[in-house]
């Protein structure tokens, strides 16, 4: 093992060096993947030197998500304290289902969940970790289904159920409706206002329409940080409707649910204590390694109702309270809690709060930059860490793809209300204002150097033509 750790150290150092050299990684087209890299598996063992060479090349060509050139999805950076926790979790290799197998790691997980429950304002709340936000959203939907018809886990679905979500919500909602037996056709997409937030009145109208048509509405899914615009649905008002019609309220905070930890931005999820369940990805705004997805539930019993199952071979000591497998989607489950715990332990709640606030500061800076530079068009608004814009009217997919293929930046694009734009996400808490300026400068220089590619012609050249 000692030699392996030495090799790890060497490879990690190599990665850090490469990260200084390239914005993200040298571009490797998928069509050339198997020609460029030695990925095939062979019958015989590999010599040490070849093995190391093979790993080095693999690392070199893998996109580096921790660099200030990566803005592609809703994560980024590399927080050392969180990385330490995840490395230790790999070395320890516990499975979180029982106290017998995980010991004090169970306490690590429970302390995080209990602390977050207290911040929300739930007295006896519960929760668990799941393999990603899509899956913790699935757990919310399963509880919604089972709580509105407790016979479903035994008999299956007999009456048609409906779920409600905004047109701007994450694609896991229809996918999960398919998994749950509710069906994609029973997902109602509610229209949004001009900032991409669900319209409570339209929601209420749709619920009444469905009830009159004989459906059983089971779930309203709200989003705290929509995937494209980073908007926050109004929880308070919708919670009222959910109470009125006895519908489970889940808040998908996978992207920006971590505002919970910021006194300054917690108002964006005002009313969260009225939700039945809340999902949050610490691997997005809190910057832990992937994945670190929490599901928090107002009533712990609902988790047991939907996810516990007897298993004599597994649960042999201790009370249910310490055997976390009884509230889990999985059987064996990796320890995703430790990386958040090491981070939190090290920087304190104030450190997490600063981390969240800093990302909003970076977004404010980016919006200011755009507003002060006439070549840009802004499609975003305050209180969002997604900054959507276009540059010189260039088609966003063309520009993003060219930046990718020439290894300048990884950034994605999105659309809303008929506009298509580049989406800069300021979720790498390690970025500075200078990194954001560099992002824009990189785009500007790149466009300047590749005018023909974007159908822009230099007016001076045109004049020379005449
Ligand atoms: C990222 C995201 C998800 C999915 O989370 P994964 O961990 O990628 O499965 C769900 N909802 C929203 C709003 C997200 O931003």
Automatic annotation (TrEMBL):
Cellular-component GO terms for this entry: cytoplasm
Origin: domain of life: Bacteria
Pfam families: Pyridoxal_deC (PF00282)
GO molecular function: carboxy-lyase activity; pyridoxal phosphate binding
InterPro entries assigned to the protein according to its UniProt record, in alphabetical order: PyrdxlP-dep_de-COase (IPR002129), PyrdxlP-dep_Trfase (IPR015424), PyrdxlP-dep_Trfase_major (IPR015421), Pyridoxal-P_BS (IPR021115)
N6-(pyridoxal phosphate)lysine: residues carrying this PTM: 284
GO biological process: carboxylic acid metabolic process
Family named by the database record: Belongs to the group II decarboxylase family.
Cited PANTHER family: CYSTEINE SULFINIC ACID DECARBOXYLASE, GLUTAMATE DECARBOXYLASE-RELATED
Protein's UniProt name: Cysteine synthase
UniProt organism field: Aureitalea marina
């Amino acid at each position: 093992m000692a030699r392996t750790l030495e090799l790890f150290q060497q490879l990690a150092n190599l990665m850090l060096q490469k990260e200084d050299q390239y914005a993200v990684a040298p571009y490797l087209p998928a069509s050339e993947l198997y020609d460029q890299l030695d990925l095939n598996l062979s019958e015989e063992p590999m010599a040490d030197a070849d093995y190391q060479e093979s790993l080095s090349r693999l690392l070199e060509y893998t996109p580096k998500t921790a660099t200030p050139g990566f803005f592609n999805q809703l994560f980024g950076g590399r927080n050392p304290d969180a990385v330490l926790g995840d490395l230790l979790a790999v070395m320890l290799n516990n499975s979180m289902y029982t106290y017998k197998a995980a010991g004090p790691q169970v306490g690590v997980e429970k302390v995080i969940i209990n602390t977050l429950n207290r911040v929300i304002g739930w007295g006896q709340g519960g929760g668990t970790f799941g393999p990603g936000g899509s899956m913790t959203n699935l757990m919310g939907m399963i509880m919604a289904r089972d709580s509105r018809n407790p016979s479903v886990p035994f008999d299956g679905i007999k009456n048609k159920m409906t779920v409600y979500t905004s047109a701007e919500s994450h694609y896991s909602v229809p996918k999960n409706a398919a998994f749950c037996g509710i069906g994609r056709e029973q997902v109602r997409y509610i229209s949004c206002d001009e900032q991409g937030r669900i319209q409570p009145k339209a929601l209420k109208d749709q619920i009444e329409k469905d009830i009159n048509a004989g459906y059983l509405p089971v779930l309203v899914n709200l989003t705290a940080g929509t995937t494209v615009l980073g908007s926050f649905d109004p929880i308070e008002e919708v919670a009222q409707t959910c109470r009125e019609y006895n519908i489970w309220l889940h808040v998908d905070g996978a992207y920006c649910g971590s505002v919970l930890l910021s006194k300054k931005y917690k108002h964006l999820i005002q009313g969260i204590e009225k939700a039945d369940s809340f999902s949050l990805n610490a691997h997005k705004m809190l910057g832990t390694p992937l994945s670190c997805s929490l599901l928090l539930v107002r009533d712990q019993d609902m988790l047991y109702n939907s996810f516990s199952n007897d298993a004599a071979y597994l649960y042999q000591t201790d009370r249910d309270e310490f055997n976390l497998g009884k509230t889990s989607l999985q059987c064996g489950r990796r320890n995703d809690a430790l990386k958040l715990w090491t981070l939190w332990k090290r920087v304190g709640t104030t450190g997490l709060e600063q981390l969240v606030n800093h990302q909003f500061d970076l977004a404010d800076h980016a919006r200011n930059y755009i507003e002060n530079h006439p070549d840009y068009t802004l499609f975003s608004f305050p209180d969002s860490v997604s900054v959507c814009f276009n540059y010189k009217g260039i088609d966003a997919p063309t520009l993003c793809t060219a930046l990718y293929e020439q290894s300048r930046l990884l950034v994605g694009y999105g659309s809303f209300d008929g506009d298509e734009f580049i989406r800069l996400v300021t979720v790498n808490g390690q970025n500075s204002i200078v990194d954001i300026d560099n992002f824009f400068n990189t785009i500007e220089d790149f466009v300047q150097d590749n005018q023909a590619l974007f159908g822009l012609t230099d007016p001076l050249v045109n004049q020379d033509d005449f």
